[in-house]
Amino acid sequence: MSTLQYRFCPQCAQPLEQRDHGGAPRMVCTAEPCGFVQWGNPVPVVAALVEYQGKILLARNAGWPAEFYALITGFLERNESPEEGVARELKEETNLDAVETSLIGVYPFQRKNEVIMAYHVKAEGEVSLSEELVAYKLIEPAKLRPWRMGTGLAMAHWMQARGLEVQWLEF
After folding, report:
1. Per the domain annotation, does 169 fall within a domain?
2. Are residues 75 and 115 in the same domain?
3. For labeling, which of 35, 97, 117, 171 is most exposed (least CB within 10 Å)?
């Protein structure tokens, strides 16, 4: 799990120590009046399975292997709904406009301590990738190959809901 682990309290700078709190081991401030507890709550992430020109748009992050493409994802920001967040991320990453969004589902991604809210997003416009992305490709929905975690589960559920056969990508 890649959750940030504080060694010192972000409120009073006293050392943190692991204690049983709320039925689980947690990092807790040693200063009595402070009361800080690092809960380790998952980070909310939005994901877009983007339908564009009748195909599904997958993108490759600059830090990924050349053969790896995935859904558009990003962190939900303060004071925005998941629908607003997924539309914002789509615009920031691809310059496309979301014209219709529908929830596919909510998925845990324990490896990164995230909870993913995945949407099917119909999009319009002209693709222009952000500096985070280096390539994209458009794939016929029946040719998608989901992976067995995180956003791959959302892709598989979306395909199954449309009667498409799921052929899992094996790593």
Report:
1. no
2. yes
3. 171
